């Protein structure tokens, strides 16, 4: 995992993109748009953000190593729990998961900032 954090990010991103598209198709077919915020967050936090993280590590904008692996697991948990939490908040008025998911997603971006700054003075890897 350590040497291929870019691939891990990109693979999960593609899986999230597929999930977001399937939900989009389902919403369109059902003419029910209650879950648009779930769809948008699967696509934008899952597909787009995770893909950008992967590209950032691959191009050397961010330094990987142990903090990169930690970033991956926090980002993955956030990208899954945030849309799931929006779903639970929308359909069942349960807000605990969306709070955890949003804090993990924020922590993920902060960790990415740390790894971007670490790459300023060190070679990629
Ligand atoms: C198979 C692919 C996709 C399908 C079938 C699909 C379907 C939909 C549908 C039915 C809506 C609701 C539109 C409405 O409320 O009138 C929507 C909204 C949205 N989708 Fe998708 N979508 C797809 C892919 C994506 C992707 C890849 C992204 C982003 C990377 C994305 C981002 C959004 C956003 C941001 C909205 C909210 C737009 C707004 O509220 O103005 N979608 N999508």
What does this structure look like?
- The protein is mainly alpha-helical.
- It has one domain (2-120).
- It contains 4 helices and no strands.
- It has helices at 5-30, 36-59, 66-92, 96-120.
- Helix 1 (5-30) runs parallel beside helix 3 (66-92).
- The longest helix has 27 residues, at 66-92.
- It is elongated.
- The two termini are 12 Å apart.
- It binds protoporphyrin IX containing FE (HEM).
- Protoporphyrin IX containing FE binds next to helix 1 and helix 2.
List keywords for this structure.
125 residues, mainly alpha, elongated, binds protoporphyrin IX containing FE
**Silhouette:** elongated
Query: What is the domain tally?
Result: 1
Average pLDDT number: 95
Radius of gyration: 15 Å
Annotation field: number of helices: 4
How much helix, percentage-wise, in residues?
A: over 70%
Element-by-element helix/strand order: HHHH
Bound molecules: protoporphyrin IX containing FE
Structural class call reads: mainly alpha
